[in-house]
Amino acid sequence: MDVEVAQWVAEHRVATVTVICRRLEDLGTSVTFFLVVGIICLVVATWLRLWRYVPRALLAVILSVLACGQLKPRIDRPRPAADLALSMLSGPAMPSSHAMFTASAVTAVLLAPMWTSQQLHRLVMIVGITGCLISGAAMIYLGGHWLTDVLVGWLLGAGIAAAVMKVPTRRLSGRFV
Q: Residue 68: how many CA atoms within 13 Å on its side-chain side?
């Protein structure tokens, strides 16, 4: 299925979509982008007094990054061939680190028990899932990853974040939260 999807995408590329996907690729590898996102997250956490959820969310993302770093060389799956790819990325393809990172971050935020507004929770869920889908589609479109690399990355990232966010913690009173 991966080869068929990659071939179909390669045969149906459009110049405008290619430009957009390349810009997204540049953004996703930009240190400045991650610094800006980090600062925004810190400002929002401070403004909404959500500090107690920040360590778990960070732990989820860090564990996803570490797990991905351990899995890639063990799986050692090659990336799509040059005739199917616009982006020539190095290193093993599976799991997709961008897919793991985005799914982990979005899942951690969505599972944090901080939501007082269902409307805001739904909005953040829609934006987060849309961001994950666009990011994954761009990686497949550019030929940096196979479809299953992205799917596995999403599943692993979301799974790690769900596990971290749902583990009970002890309060000072001795009750589990």
A: 31
84 phi/psi in degrees, rounded to 5:
-105, -5
What one-letter code names the amino acid at 26?
D
Contact between 102 and 159 (Cβ < 8 Å)? no
Please give the Cα distance from 26 to 48 (Å, whole number). Answer: 31
Positive or negative CA dihedral for 156, 159, 161, 163?
A: negative
Beta carbons of 70 and 97 less than 8 angstroms apart = no
Total-model pTM: 0.79
Average pLDDT of adjacent 10-residue blocks, the chain of 177 residues? 82 84 76 74 71 79 90 90 79 86 86 77 86 88 89 94 78 49
Q: What is the DSSP string of 90-140?
A: -S--SS-HHHHHHHHHHHHHHHSTT---HHHHHHHHHHHHHHHHHHHHHHH
